[in-house]
Design brief:
This protein is mainly α. Helix content is 55%, strand content 0%. The protein has helices at residues 11-21, 39-47, 49-57, 60-71, 76-92. It is elongated, with a radius of gyration of 25 Å. The model has no long low-confidence stretch (mean pLDDT 84).
Length: 106
């Protein structure tokens, strides 16, 4: 329905349309993205439940960044050191690469 002038608007027709749509509820669901966690990170989160709560509140993108950061280390010692290094960042709710991102100007 298009209106060329304000006088073309029929209030009763608009009221009927409003009543018809009153009961409609739209549900939009996004597919849940599953992030594959390396074993070291998974075990660490099982042992530290407060860190796990913070980790799973992060966006899937940030979870993936942390998973890649841990899995990219070759030695077990390096993986353990990275886990200790990222724990405060996870609790804080930031990503591992956030310090390199520019702040957006509004």
């Amino acid at each position: 329905m298009r209106f060329k002038d304000i006088s073309d608007i029929n209030e009763s027709v608009i009221g009927q349309y409003a009543q018809e749509t009153n009961g409609l509820v739209l549900e939009i669901s996004k597919p849940v993205k599953k992030v594959l966690l390396p074993g070291e990170l998974s075990n660490y989160l099982k042992e530290h439940s407060s860190v796990a709560d913070s980790f799973f509140r992060l966006s899937p993108e940030r979870q993936k960044e942390y998973a890649e950061y841990i899995s990219s280390a070759k030695r077990e010692y390096t993986k353990f050191e990275r886990l200790k290094r990222i724990t405060p960042l996870i609790v804080k709710g930031t990503g591992p690469n956030d310090k390199y991102k520019r702040e957006q100007k509004l």
